[in-house]
Amino acid sequence: MASSSTRRSSSPPPECGWTCYSPLSDDTYLPSGGVDAWIFLIHLTGISSLVGAINFYATIANMRAPGMGWGRMPLFCWAILVYAILLILALPVIAGAVTLLLTDRHFGTHFYDASQGGSPLLWQHLFWFFGHPEVYIMVLPGFGIISEILPVFSRKPIFGYKAIAASTVVIAFLGLLVWAHHMFSTPSPTIVLVFFMLSSFLIAVPTGVKMFNWIATLWRGTIEFTVAMLFAIGFLFTFLIGGITGIFLAIFPVDWQLTDTYFVVAHLHYVLVGGAVLSIFAGIYYWFPKMTGRMLGEGLGKLSFWLMLIGFHVTFLIQHSIGLDGMPRRVYEYPDVGNLELYNLISTIGSFILALGVLVTIINVVISLKKGAVSGPDPWKGNTLEWYTTSPPPVNNFDSVPRIRSVEPMKDIRRQVLRQQTEKAPVVDAEAPATA
Ligand SMILES: [Cu+2]
């Protein structure tokens, strides 16, 4: 066993994939310190996320502006609130799971060791009880960003505020009940498979509620195609495809066929790039002026958006076909059968276009930080309170916090300013009748 002794001496990385399934992660297969370092890092990043989540939760629960009841909170804050609760519920489970792994590896326990009465499936259950909510932990903040951007650049109030806020909560709740759809190929009783198939289907309902409300927000709006809005619309389109392939994969006999193929890789990227990455880029273009006081160039931004959108779809759409042709995931070598080589070539070309698109935004940020147009406090005529303060905001955010009377406080403030101006107007007219 030359290879295992090399492993022992050179302390290689944790070669058990990102899921570290047992028995791949046990101390006889991987005795090196790599897995232990991985366990330590899971704890470290877990504590960091947990502390951050508690902070978000406490801030939202205790420090809202005067008059901002739950029903007047920005949808982005709703998303962050639910994201924080999900983290608080899911992180302790993965922390416990890796702690059991640590005691298995070093203190003689056998939680995951089948030969000693343990269960490798226990690891998978604990891992995915965290792992599936983690998808929503990544995507929900993106949903929140989109819910802020769409109404501003449609010049319409958000359609179905309550439905969008409620569906965020429902997605989180259902998201805690579907973890074993990642385990359809394990020897589980059929009734368990059916439960997790149906619960996974159910998530399509609140997600569909969101989709329809977002589209209804756009409907007959005065749409402004700013870069933030382009990324938001790109999100709607891309995430929709990811959601639909998710329904395919939730059907367990279909999953038996597709699991561990590139179809899953394609689905994951449509959900996470469509859901998280595109919405983060929308958020960067939307809030860059607020963060820096300068506009992020719209010209380069549009170039970046189109390169990213086209690059993304060229890379990942074809991966559905790669998967349907049977290519397994997690391999970089594959037999030259069928169209696999052509498909992989197309995918590789797409990835370079996608990377170029990201690079254009990085260059855009560097240029705009120095030379971008000065934005002023409210360049977009935003709806939410951050646009009330200067860009960038002072350390204390607000010298005086205005009282909140609706979901769109900035509209109220603008209306109030307009009313004050028109009330003054007759006085001005009376003083200068000749100019009238
Ligand atoms: Cu899942």
Question: In a nutshell, what does this entry contain?
Answer:
The chain is mostly helical and 436 residues long. The protein is 67% helix and 0% strand.
Order of helices and strands: HHHHHHHHHHHH
- Radius of gyration equals 25 Å
Work out the oligomeric state of the chains in this entry: single chain
Ligand roster: copper (II) ion
Ranges with pLDDT <50 over ≥5 residues?
1-9, 428-436
Number of helices: 12
Task: Briefly note the CATH topology name of the domain at 14-224.
Answer: Cytochrome C Oxidase, Chain A
Described by the principal axes of the CA atoms, the overall outline is globular
Total beta strand runs? 0
Question: What is the CATH class of the domain at 14-224?
Answer: Mainly Alpha
| CATH architecture name of the domain at 14-224 | Up-down Bundle
CATH homologous superfamily identity of the domain at 14-224: Cytochrome c oxidase-like, subunit I domain
SSE class: mainly alpha
Average pLDDT value? 91
